[in-house]
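Subject: for your reference before the review

Hello V.,

The reviewers asked for a structural picture of the protein, and I figured it would be easier to keep everything in one thread rather than splitting it across files. Below is the amino acid sequence we used in the manuscript, unchanged from the supplementary table.
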Amino acid sequence: MRLGFATPISVHPPSSLPLTSSLPLSLPFNDHSSFLSSSSLSFTPSGRSSLALRVENIGFKIERQLIDLMESGQEIPEVNRNLYPSIEPYSTGFLKVSEIHTIYWEQSGNPNGYPVVFLHGGPGGGTTPSNRRFFDPDHYRIILFDQRGAGRSTPHACLEQNTTWDLINDIEKLREHLEVPEWQVFGGSWGSTLALAYSQSHPEKVTGMVLRGIFLLRKKEIAWFYEGGAAAIFPDAWEPFRDLIPENERGCLVDAYHKRLNSDNAETQYAAARAWTKWEMMTAHLFPNEDNIKRGDDDNFSLAFARIENHYFVNKGFFPSDSYLLDNVDKIRHINTTIVQGRYDVCCPMMSAWDLHKAWPEADFKMQDILQTNQE
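And here is what came back from the structure prediction:
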C-alpha cells in the first residue's frame, strides 16, 4: 500500500562492476523509511553480476538518542538524507500500452549503465524527480515510469483495464521498448508487491531485486490499516478518515470509500480522495511531515492515488488467492534478493516481511529494529 518514502542506502559493487547507488529502504506507499544501523547486505543478481550492498549509518540518531533529545527538550537535528544530486532525464516518452492507456517513462543516469527499474508505490502514487536520486547516475541506467492512471500517465485516475496483470504486461512492454535484455528490479511498499508479481511472471528477465517495506496485499494487511488496527497508534488521524463515512456504513470502510470514490458526483469523489490520502500521509512518518500531508489537499494527486489504490484493494490485488505471492516464491527462489523492513512501519507492518522471510529464507533479510523517520 503505498508510495514508498525511504531512507537511502549505498550500494557498493566490486571493482569489476562499478555500480553504486543510493536506494530507499522502507515501507510501501507510503514508501516509508526506517533508521538504518551499520550492517552489510550481500546481493548477487541471479548469478550474473555480483553486488555488495553495504547499508551504512548515514548520520541518523538511533532510538535511544532521539528519546533522550525529546525528554531533554532539545531540538532534534535535521536528518541528512545523503541522496545523490538532482538530475534530469536524458530521455522521456509515452508508450501506448492498450487501447485506453498510455504510460509515461523516463531514463536518467548513465545510458550505458546497469539497468534498474524503479516501481513506485500506491498503487496510484506515481513517480517524482527525487526517485532518481536514490541511484548513482554514473553507474546506473535509471528507468522510472508512472503506472496506469498515475502521475503523467493517461487517462488520469482511470480504473478501466487497470489490474496487477495489466501493469506486469506494461513492464514487459517497456523493457522491450527500451531494448533492455534484463534488469534489476527495485520496489517498496506496493512497489514490492508489484516487483514480486512481475518477477514471478518473468523470472528470466530479473537480475536481482531490492525489496523494502513489504506489502503482500493480503486481507489481514488491509484490515490492519483500514479497519482499525493502525488507528490505535494514530487515533487523531483515524477519526477524520472514519468520520467521513456514516456509522451505518462503517462495517467495511474500504467498500464505503469505494462507493464514494466512484460516485457520479465529482465533489463526493474529491472529498473521499482527500480523506483517504490524508490518512495515509499522516501515518507515513514518525514525526509529522507537513509537506507530505499537504499532498492530500492536491485533488489531482489524491484522486488518482485514492481511486486506484482503493480499486486494487477492493479487488484483492487481482490475485487468485490471498497468499498468492507467498505460494509462488519457488518461481523466484533462485533470484538474489535483499529484503529490508522497518519494525515500526505502520502502513506496511512487519508481519508481511516476516512471512516473506519465512517462505524465502534464501533472500537476504534485514530487519531494522529502529524508528521510522522522514520519507522521500
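For the response letter, the relevant points are probably these. The chain has eleven helices and 14 strands. The two ends are 15 Å apart (CA to CA).

Happy to draft the paragraph if you're swamped.

O.
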